[in-house]
Design goal:
Elements lengths: L1 H13 L4 H15 L6 H7 L1 H17 L3 H15 L2 E2 L4 E2 L4 E2 L6 E2 L4 E2 L4 E2 L4 E3 L11 E2 L4 E2 L4 E3 L3 E2 L4 E2 L4 E2 L7 E4 L4 E4 L20 H21 L10 E3 L2 E3 L6
Parallel strand pairs: 1-4, 2-5, 3-6, 4-7, 5-8, 6-9, 7-10, 8-11, 9-12, 10-13, 12-14
Antiparallel strand pairs: 14-15, 16-17
Helix pairs in contact: 4-5
């Protein structure tokens, strides 16, 4: 899967539009994905996420032509201006939108597909001293929530969503949702299609641990009922009632 996504990103880049067309697509993408955006002029002047992407295109061009020092200097200039650090060796697709962006870090061998959305504090980091591929490959139409960390030479499949503050250390199939530390993978019941609107619904994140605890409590109650012949009254300090966990005489 990792090789397939990487080849998809490279194919997309081979057909990349010209610079001005890319800028136009970037502005339209930001207008579509940010309800606070009021005009293309405002986006062009005031959105550091797009400024970082535009400067990266130049630094990446320099990097590929062996102007490594100049490329790194330009990337560090962008870091100081925007708070977003993108290594010039990283491969970034079309219509990538970095919302707010402060604290975003994208490593040298990272690959990011088309129509990806990144929020502030996202890290696409490496976990190896190996100079080869050591950063993640992000598929197309992926949304990565604020503070999420995607680490190592792994692949995030197309149309997936990474929840805020999740730590992802293993590859994720396409059309999945990832939550928690370490990230737990949940397959979408209704797949996201390329023609669908960008998936920015960050509140639709399943609590897999709470669901498992509720299931265990229900099974324990069922076993107690079978053994004792009647329903057991729970006196546990923590029991879920609806969406809230209730506390009984608990102080710090």
């Amino acid at each position: 899967m990792q090789i397939e996504v990487s080849q998809t990103v490279q194919t997309k880049k081979a057909k990349a539009p010209g610079f001005l067309d890319s800028v136009r697509e970037d502005l339209n993408s930001a207008l579509q994905r940010d309800p606070a955006a009021r005009s293309r002029l405002e986006i062009a002047l005031l959105y550091p996420g797009l400024h970082a992407i535009w400067i990266h295109r130049l630094s990446h061009w320099l990097w590929n032509r062996d102007f490594k020092l100049l490329a790194r200097w330009l990337s560090q200039l962008a870091r100081g201006l925007t708070g977003i650090e993108i290594h010039p060796g990283a491969k970034i697709g079309q219509r990538v939108f970095i919302d707010h962006g402060m604290g975003v870090v994208i490593g040298e061998t990272a690959e990011v597909g088309d129509d990806v959305t990144l929020y502030h504090g996202v890290t696409l980091g490496g976990t190896s001293l190996n100079k080869g591929k050591r950063h993640p490959t992000i598929g197309n139409r992926v949304t990565i929530g604020a503070g999420a960390k995607v680490l190592g030479n792994i692949t995030i499949g197309d149309d997936s969503r990474i929840g805020a503050n999740a730590v992802v250390v293993k590859s994720v199939p396409e059309n999945s949702v990832v939550v928690g530390v370490p990230g737990q993978i949940v397959k979408r019941a209704q797949p996201h299609r390329p023609s669908d609107a960008p998936d920015l619904n960050h509140t639709a994140l399943p609590d897999v641990f709470a669901a498992a605890i509720r299931d265990l409590l229900a099974r324990v109650e069922d076993l107690e009922t079978r053994v004792e012949g009647h329903s057991h009254v729970h006196t546990a300090h923590y029991t879920p009632v609806g969406e809230a966990w209730q506390e009984v005489d608990y102080t710090i």
